[in-house]
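REQUEST ID: PR-0412
SUBMITTED BY: lab tech R.K.
PRIORITY: routine
TASK: structure prediction, single protein chain
INPUT:
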Amino acid sequence: MSGLQGGQAVAPGPIRLSRLPDDQAAIQPTLLGASVLSNENIRADYWSLVLDAPTIAERAQPGQFVMLTVARQGEAVPILPRPMAIFRWDAAAGTIEIVYRLVGGGTRVLATWDRGEVMTVVGPLGRGFRLKPDTSTILLLGRGIGTCSLTALAEVAIAGGMTVYAVASGRSREGVFGGGFYREAGARHVLEVVDTDGSSDPERLRGDLLDMLDASGVDQVFVCGSQRLLALGVELAARYQAEVQVSLEAHMACGLGYCHGCSTGAPGLAKEAPLVCTEGPVFVSTGRGSLS
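STATUS: complete
OUTPUT:
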């Protein structure tokens, strides 16, 4: 999905992650036929899909995702639905927006859907990000399409009076997404960094973030799309005694925990490793080690 549409479901390097606490009632997903309201190329190879999906829009939380059946009835491929992060939603209008990037056959078929067609959608799915009641300042670290898992969180946090700092990273300027969205939403400071000029280098970015954060500190750090950003987030969190939450990326076939195709694969567990779809995609960083 946007944030989950590519990569293997693996624990990122040596950083230990744990499941979010079971302190919230489970949100029951729904299956519906959602009318396509728009499906447009918004910049470079990024597209925006807006769906009429009121039962999903009224229940969605930041960091959750939907499963989209990309193949039309009678089409042979792609056989499996695609997981996509919910970029944002409008509960009053009953709409959800998915921002995706053309990366393969499935997303190229998705780009052919026209206004008025009805797509099978399941959602909202997964455990989303959790904002603590005493949080006043957050840092968002996203790379490429992974930023699309963080955008709704920025809106919710800003609406709640929190200060938001954000980093949008990519290989090149064309690959960076989300900076303009963060600014329009009211983020305090936004850094857009890229590999081509070295601004995304962890050491350089670390210095830039320390200049931003040393005066105010940060209470929670949220990451998606990069192991290097996660490692940096963990380091910064230790400095400011903050919590880190990360959204993992994974291929999956159902999004409901039936297929077990998105197991995180963490070694050394007595039972099966956590599934990204039902026990994630958001996990909490608790230090160094493996997923537990």
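NOTES: The CA atoms of residues 140 and 192 lie 12 Å apart.
REVIEWED BY: pending
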